[in-house]
Every structure is written in C-alpha cells, then in structure tokens.
Amino acid sequence: MSVNTLSLPKRRLPLWWLALPVFLLLFALSLLIGVAELHLTQLGERDLQILLISRLPRTLALVLAGMSLAVAGLLMQMLARNRFVEPSTTGTVECAMLGLLLVTLLAPAMPVMGKMLIASVFALAGSLVFMALLRAVPLHSTVMVPLIGIMFGGVVGAVIAFIAYRLNLMQSVANWTNGDFSAILRGRYELLWIGAALAVIAYLTADRFTVAGMGRDFATNLGLNYRWVLLFGLAIVSMISAVTVVTTGVIPFLGLVVPNVVSLMMGDHLRRSLPWVAIMGAALVLACDILGRLLRYPYEIPIGTVFGVIGSAFFIYLLLRRSEGRS
Amino acid sequence: MIEIRNLSKRYGDSTVIDNVSLDLADAGITAIIGPNGAGKSTLLGMISRLQSIDAGTVHIDGLDITATPSMTLARKLAILRQENQISTRLRVIDLVTFGRYPYCKGRPGPEDLEQVQRALAFLNLDDLAQRFLDTLSGGQRQRAYIAMVLCQDTDYVLLDEPLNNLDMKHAVDIMQLMQRASQAMGKKVIIVLHDINFAACYADDIVALQNGKLAFQGHPEALITADKMKALYDIDMTIERFKGRPIGLYYA
Ligand SMILES: Nc1ncnc2c1ncn2[C@@H]1O[C@H](COP(=O)(O)OP(=O)(O)OP(=O)(O)O)[C@@H](O)[C@H]1O
Ligand SMILES: [Mg+2]
After folding, report:
1. Which domain holds residue A194?
2. What is the CATH number of the domain that holds A93?
3. Mutation choice for ligand 1 from B18, B40, B50, CB with most ligand atoms inside 8 A
4. What are residue B206's DSSP bridge partners?
5. Distance between CA A42 and CA B14 in Å, rounded?
6. Which of residues 73-112 of B touch A (CB under 8 A)?
7. B51: buried, middle or exposed (CB in 10 Å: 19+, 13-18, 0-12)?
8. Per-residue pLDDT reduced to its tens digit, A135-164
9. Does residue A73 lie in a domain region?
10. N or C: which terminal CB in chain A sees fewer CB atoms within 10 Å?
11. B165 and A41 in contact (C-beta within 8 Å)?
C-alpha cells in the first residue's frame, strides 16, 4: 500500500514508449520532405549536401525552437500563476523584438550573439514590467492576466511598428513574430542550442518552479527565495524568447497550448511534466511544419500561420472550458 | 520560544499591529483569539517572515527572523495561512511531499517518504493521495495543506484558522493531533481559533488581540470568563464547565 501510493501512475512508461517513436517518425518525415528530391537508396554527394546544409538544420531548428518555446511557456505560467500566459502574451517577445530592432539600427555590425544578449535584457525588463503590472492591478481574474500582458505587448508593438515603419524595416519585424523555418541553413540556427540548454537548466531546477507555482506564501514557508526564483525563471524565459526571435522567429501560442495539454494530462509537478512539455512542443512543431509544407506543395505556408490557426482555436476552447469550470 | 518586542505594522495611516510585545509558545498549544480584524493573521504573518515588519523585532529561539536565512527558518517554523489557493494542478501526495522540501530539495529519501505516509495517514488522506487538489472539497484540501505543514516537521507550527471548512470530527481530530504532537514530540503549536471553546479545551496558553493590541494573555482558566469575553467580543456569554475546562455558551 505504502509503496503503491508513492509509485507514479502506471501508464507513464508506456506513454513514453508511444511518444518516442511518434517523435522519431516526425523527425524522419521532416528530413525527407522537401522540394529538392532526395535519393536515399543511393545517397550521393548532392543528397548528403542537401541533408546536411538544409534539411537537418531545419529539422533541428524546429525541434529546438519547439521544445524551448513550450518550456518557456510552462515556466511563465508557473511564475505568473496563470494558465493563459506565455512569452507572447506577456510583452516578453515584443520587448525582445524592440531590443533587437534597436541594436540592428544602432550597432548593425554586432555579432548575432551580442544582439541576442541585448534582446534578452530587453525581454527580461519587459517581463519584470509585466509582473509589476500584475501586482499593481488589483482583482485580476484568470482572464484579466493575459489581457494585461497582451495590452502591454500591444503598446511595445506599436513603438516597434512606429520605428520600423519609418525606417522600412517592417519586413524583418514581421519575420520575428511569425516563425519561419524555410530559410534555415547550416550556420543560421545554432543559437537555438542555447534555448535547448536553457530548457535543460529549467528541468534541473524544476522543483523550484513547482514550489514557486504554489504561490509566494507557500514558497517562502518552504524556505525558497521567491524573488530570486522569479528572477531566475524570468531570465530563462527571456533568453529563450530572445534566442528564437533572433534566429527563426517565435511561434505564437505554442507555449500556451502545449503546457496546458500536459497539465491536463499529468498535472504540474514540473520534474515529471517538463520533459513531456518539451517533447510535445517539438513534436507539434514538426507536425505543423510538415503540414505547412504539404498543404500547398511545392509552396510553403509558414509554420507560425499553421500553428496560429490551431493554437488560437485551442486557446479559445481553453478559455471557455476553464471559465465555465470556475463559475 | 518566540520573543516579540514592540512589533508594529501599518497600512497607510491605520496601525493594525500596535507595539505588541509578548513571549509565545513557551507551552505546547498557544491559541490566538480576537475579533475579526484584530490583527491575528497579520501577527502570524510577521512572525513567519511572510509579511514585512514595520517596527520591532521577532526572535525565534534567539534567531532574529529578519537576519536568519529563509531555509533555516523553514526547518524551524511552518505556517499555514488563513486563505490558501494553489492554482497549479498538484496531487495531494506531491503537495505533502513538498513539505519535505527544506530538507531534501525535492529529492525525498526513504525517511522523507515515511514522514509523508505518516502525515497522510494522520489526516485521513490515504484514499485521496493520488487526487489532484482542484478535485477536492474545501475541507479535504484544508487537510492536505495541514498534512504538508506537519510533514515539514518543525519545532514551531503556526496555523491560521486551520479548522475553517472542517466538519466537527475532523476539527476535533486536528486539535487532538496537535495536542499529541505537542505532548509527545515537544512541538509548539500556535493556532488562531475563532471558536473559543476549542481554545478553552486544548490551549495551554491563550493570547487575545484586540484592535492590534495585546488584550490579555494567560491560561484558559483565567481568560474564559464572562467579563473578559464581553470586553473582547462584546457578547454576553454564560460560562459552564466541561471536563474540567471552562466552556462559553453564546449561541443564543
Ligand atoms: N493589505 C492591507 N491593506 C490594508 N489593510 C489591511 C491589509 N491587510 C490587512 N489589513 C487590515 O489589518 C487589520 C488586521 O487584519 P488581519 O487579517 O490580521 O485580522 P484578523 O485578526 O486575522 O481577522 P480575521 O479574524 O477576520 O481573520 C484589518 O483591519 C484589516 O482590514
Ligand atoms: Mg485572520
């Protein structure tokens, strides 16, 4: 009995056995589908080139961005103690974009790593403003919280649009918010490994975020330095946002949909659920990208668009479902 | 012992804890009573470092709470507040296991798990262990929170109206559990109670707050009198005796 209640629910292992093959299948499909034809049976020089320079980088970029964005969404939900937030509904992404825009204007020659760091700092500042706004606005209902974030993001977005419009940079700005993986080549995506590393760090410190998600009083009672964890978590979220903005552009709603599904499935004990968030984030992105490539073959629909349709529909469904449960 | 000296808390220009000095938790169970808004929760919040102190000091076993690392305090003192809302989806067993966080940082060993089992059994939660908190009734959830706080296994246990939402049996169970914990394990329990009869039956020491000031402190026998209750709650009470303790009748 005592052993039984402590052991994790029985179906955990089989689920992994189901999830891993699905993920690998998607990974393989993503490598194989493309305009340029691959001859796998007699892998020639050219096929190898396509694989290594274009296909593999693209697939890896999808996986890395998918998992890190999903994890960033999960962390943000724990820290803001709200299910409806993710970096693109808290102003974090917009602030990262503002940072990137300014650095592009003022120091265009800066290496991409430096640009990413500056975008991270802006994103962190934005996240902190969002948290301060939450504290300042009394009576925040569940739905108010993301609305505050979206409004804040809207204000920052307006500033970005103003600057970009005057300087004819609207096109690049549009790319930052709407993830596009079609132009990914070797040498253009490697920064995303930083995002994956940050997701791993989040996993290693997962218990802190689970405790922080219980709220300030519980966390402090358990000896956690709540403010520090908040800052640490927001820093991870901000850097992940910045890394993706700089490389591929973010995929809106990904960080919202995936953690919510996983939470419904297995709860919010992050040490258990975070790996699922990561793998489901990656799998979903791979699937949407494959879909985007096949729907109008040989043309592509950007993944941000494919996922935006699926994601926003799901977001509305969640809003309705949860608010129904509350009243 | 918890030594409170000249403690004050202000919100704007209203003083909700006004220069309070007292020694708490010499004895096993200390009950804090007083009308709504007297400052009981605020006092508990400041003692447990959850609320900032505007003036004065709190020492726990000689440790200044503002200068002691939070993690050290977490092994000395556990608090359950009056209102608790955990919005994330956690299973009861996970919540209770996090009571061991100050010791194991989320990697519970066999000893920690034993504590968890004991706390679950104490609070009758065995059958609910795998349930998510958001699927429990208010009283069941309250018991899960109490189990977590007990699992923290601290010398001082601070509970702010823990009997909220509990049915009579579970309320009595918890008071008896606290009594056992204080007598058998030497724990010092500080508990905010609204039902003065629970205080009369179980407390070794009663602290009464009124308008942010210490109204009186002492043994139930000396405090549960018609005069004092009239002064504190402005209600006429008949005092009877039950099992050697005073009991106040005020229902009609
Ligand atoms: N954040 C706040 N801002 C302003 N006033 C506050 C705040 N928090 C508490 N107060 C006031 O401080 C006083 C003491 O509150 P506290 O919660 O400590 O009372 P209490 O004795 O626990 O009451 P109850 O029995 O109702 O729980 C109350 O008058 C309350 O209105
Ligand atoms: Mg109170």
Report:
1. 53-322
2. 1.10.3470.10
3. B40
4. B31, B218
5. 83
6. 73-75, 78-81, 84-91, 93-95, 98-99, 101-102, 105-106
7. middle
8. 888 766 778 888 899 999 999 999 999 999
9. yes
10. C
11. no
